[in-house]
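A quick aside before the break. I want you to see a complete sequence-to-structure record at least once, exactly as it would be stored in a machine-readable document. Don't worry about memorizing anything.
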Amino acid sequence: MHGVLLAATLVTTTVVGAGHWISFQADFRPEIPEIGLVSGALHGLWYALTIMAILGAHELGHYLACRYYGISASLPYFLPVPFPLTGTAGAFIRIRQPITSKPALFDIGVAGPFAGFAVAVPALFIGLMLSRVVEVPADFVGMSLGEPLLFKAAAWMVWGSLPGHLSVNLHPMAFAAWFGLLATALNLFPLGQFDGGHVAYAALGRRSAIVSLLTLGAAVGLSFYSSSWIVWTLVAVGLLFVFGWRHPRTWDEDVPLDRTRLWLAICALIVFIVCFTPAPIEPLDLIQPK
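That is the input. The structure line, written in tokens, reads:
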């Protein structure tokens, strides 16, 4: 099953990656470049292999942390979904045993985002160096990607400050890195049994339930700010309904987390902040000044 899903996700992400390559070659022009099937598949791997490396590193971080603590867990299940921008709904592992201590819960929860982030950052810089700066036509209609703080900083370091009529045309590898940053931020939301929920519970104990409810309220607010949050918010609500808004207790719930892990929790918060964007995807014709 793992191999079948892995292969299927490679196919769907390669197809989507070929579309990103065609858009990259078009340079915001309405004319669609013609590429052959083999050429499209090969260039689609720029996106496919990058996003699968980021998602795979994230899940393997969880898996190896489980193995370290002797907790039974499955290998990653990749989710091949023909979404037009991503080609996948991500990946997950099954943890087959309860996690009974806060240090183990923290380490397993934070290992995934940190591992995925460690792959996404170099991919972002390489992808931006492969990108190019072009002039955006005044009548261009498409999608605008929200820029996390880390993305803005990396783009400035690679390309400097750009005048308003120019924009970075993202190479497919850069787009995969952008999606990897977004996925990292989504997982680090301190909500329920998301990775961020595990980290919040390990750091705050039962007080994390309040943080979870506040985060859910923030997600609902984000849905009014940008429609691209609606589906994720509905998924989060569904998970809280199924699993409950209180995190499952550990035997050491009232024992403070050690200083090193508290500092790592702060690092996780910083990673969340630099990967987060309030409006991930918006139609460009709605945000351009008239």
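Two observations worth writing down. The mean pLDDT is 91. The CA atoms of residues 238 and 244 lie 10 Å apart. We'll return to this after the break.
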